[in-house]
Write a structure and sequence with these properties.
The protein is α+β, with helices and mostly antiparallel strands and about 375 residues long. The protein has helices at about 75-85, 110-125, 175-185, 270-280; strands spanning about 5, 10, 100-105, 130-135, 140-145, 150, 160-165, 200, 250-255, 285-290, 295-300, 305-310, 320, 325-330, 335-345, 350-355, 365-370. It has four helices and 17 strands. Strands 1-2-12-17-14-15 form a six-stranded mixed beta sheet, with no helix packed on it. Strand 10 (about 285-290) and strand 11 (about 295-300) form a beta hairpin.
């Protein structure tokens, strides 16, 4: 279990390349009519089935666990969503602390399946902060398994062990694994946005009435999308025949004049997906092993307060701080001892070298505020 001092948690040192610090930007609507997947970098639709084709009654929108119970009405489902989605894509209590997601994998997974999961984890290295780490003693973590119950995950951190299920073979494409992991870090489906009626139309005549709740939309007070435009190419968007009675007839499609465009894809995170993740888990600053922004580092999301892990003592020699933010490092744990602050207000660079300074290799705890 991670060391806790009141509300202070330990930050684990990671070995990886430094995260990108520039959020991806999306093109404005209306989209280019010749681009089949606007906002997604020209990706093509996956050949595999979308995970929403599952119809297990306990799964909301085909692959979201923990929402529906027997006898739930549309209104009761809406109320549950409101409790989960206050003031953001997901309420703060359901976000992963410092964007660190811990995992275990079922021993039943093959070496090939494990490799696919690790590749999916690396997809999130396109974001500024979200990273996946093997669990040691952490109490909150995802458990990746492959039962025959479809593809599903909970939305956001629910506390304790939470399952990400990937039925074989249908769920074992890269895009679907990343899709389920994106649910686990706190994201809902794109077509459930409160503004979706301006961009898509529904054909519920081709959807069994028992599945109509899978096309609910959230109101603007429940879910926001970081002011990003509607993204037909989001990894989190339904395909055109989601929950269809007849697979030859659409159930959701772009509104005219874009109705012939493809929607959704299960290839990789779109630029808009990445921008929304960066907005939900915003980078504040990074401590580096050396003054060239290389080697082991620890990154911190906005307004994090943390003790550093003892294994990272006597290691940090430089810092990056995002514009508009301030990082303070302390010579003792629990934010005691000598304090040194770095504020990025203006100037050509926001990277400071500690080499030769009294606080070189002297960080024991940190605050990063924006």
């Amino acid at each position: 279990m991670m060391l806790k001092v009141t509300l202070v948690l330990v930050v684990v040192l990671c070995r990886a390349n430094a995260a990108s610090i520039t959020p991806a930007k999306s093109a404005d609507l209306p989209y280019d009519a010749n681009n089949p997947l606007p906002n997604n970098g020209g990706l093509s639709i996956s050949d595999g089935d979308f995970e929403e084709r599952g119809n297990a009654p306990e799964l909301f929108e085909g692959d979201i666990a923990g929402i529906i119970e027997p006898g739930d009405s549309d209104e009761s489902i809406r109320k549950k969503l409101d409790r989960r989605t206050k003031a953001g894509v997901v309420a703060n209590t359901f976000k992963w602390w410092n964007a660190d997601v811990y995992y275990e994998m079922s021993s039943a997974l093959t070496s090939s399946e494990r490799a696919k999961v690790m590749t999916a984890f690396r997809e999130f290295e396109k974001t500024d902060t979200v990273r996946f780490y093997p669990r040691s003693t952490q109490t909150d973590y995802i458990y990746i398994q492959k039962s025959d119950q479809g593809c599903y995950a909970h939305v956001g951190k629910i506390g304790g062990m939470q399952i990400v299920n990937l039925e074989a073979p249908g769920c074992w494409t890269h895009g679907i694994i990343v899709h389920e992991l994106n649910h686990a870090i706190g994201f809902w489906h794109e077509q459930s946005r409160y503004d979706r009626d301006s961009y898509v139309e529904l054909n519920l005549n081709n959807v069994d009435s028992s599945n109509h709740h899978n096309f609910l939309k959230y109101d603007s007070g429940s879910v926001t999308h970081a002011n990003t435009p509607y993204d037909y190419g989001s990894l989190m968007h339904y395909g055109k025949t989601a929950f269809a009675l007849s697979s030859n007839v659409w159930t959701i499609r772009p509104k005219a004049p874009w109705q012939n465009r493809e929607i959704g894809q299960r290839i990789q995170l779109s630029p808009t997906d990445i921008a929304e993740i960066n907005s939900m888990y915003p980078l504040c600053g990074i401590l580096y092993e050396d003054d060239a922004k290389e080697g082991p580092y620890s990154q911190f999301v906005k307004n994090v307060v943390a003790n550093l892990h003892p294994s990272s003592y006597d290691i940090f020699s430089s810092a990056f701080v995002r514009p508009g933010c301030r990082m303070t490092i302390y010579s003792l744990v629990n934010h005691e001892g000598t304090a040194t602050s770095f504020t990025a207000n203006s100037g050509p660079t926001y990277h400071w070298s500690f080499v030769g300074k009294p606080y070189d290799n002297d960080a024991r705890s940190v605050k990063c505020e924006c």
